[in-house]
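RESIDUES AND SHAPES:
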Amino acid sequence: MTRNNSLGSLHLEGFDVTQTGYWTLQNDGHSVVLQVGSGMSVSGGGLPDMYHTIQLHFHWGSPATNGSEHTVDGHRYPMEMHIVNMKSIHPNLTAALDDPTGLAVLGFFIDVVYGDNVHFGHISQKLSSVAYKGQTAKVKPFPLMSLLPKHNMSQYYRYYGSLTTPPCSQVVVWTLYEVPIYISWSQLAQFTSQIFSTEEDAEQVTPLHNNFRHIHPTFSRVVSASKDARLLRGTASCFLRSAVTVYQLQIILLGSLISGL
């Protein structure tokens, strides 16, 4: 990882206002996707162009495993959220997939605390309506910035890579934020226990678990730290704030309860 002092905060146009109309939440069998319509864009922060925000989606593990797509010094967070943005010169996603920098994805780790995240509730409260593949629900728009670690938006990592789902095209400018979003255990459980990759009338319903791509080699790509991000050295000892996995913490909590009986 190298420091790039020219990488400052991105300009997130429209993220702090409430858009009109309705957004659509969908279970596509691979993830839960929130289509946000028009009205938001991303630029600056070393991006080669302006990008229009089109959707966000999530990756998670299972009740016993963490499921972020990226790792930090080998540590995997419980979840990860991706905000997908398409370069403004392209009329559609098909055209963007022919451009090596056609998409800009903002990645956010999601970690767990005991209290509900009220802003995340705009999404989690609708999950029961999209439990099965193909189901959709309307979501009243809310300021997307309310979900994000707004006081730490200058702390991120940058590399040029690919989509993490087929066709895995090498067309993504990745911006991965250092500071996670925090949600509650119950909000996490809604993803790991109540979302299915099959349709409601399937003979056997299958929970949607571990919908993340495994870690791949960097193939000599440069990973840059923004001017305010912590510079990682590539050893596990550097990651002092590493959180335990969901399963490990459940065991710790169970042991504490038993010892208190």
Residues 2-260 form a domain with the Carbonic Anhydrase II fold (CATH 3.10.200.10).
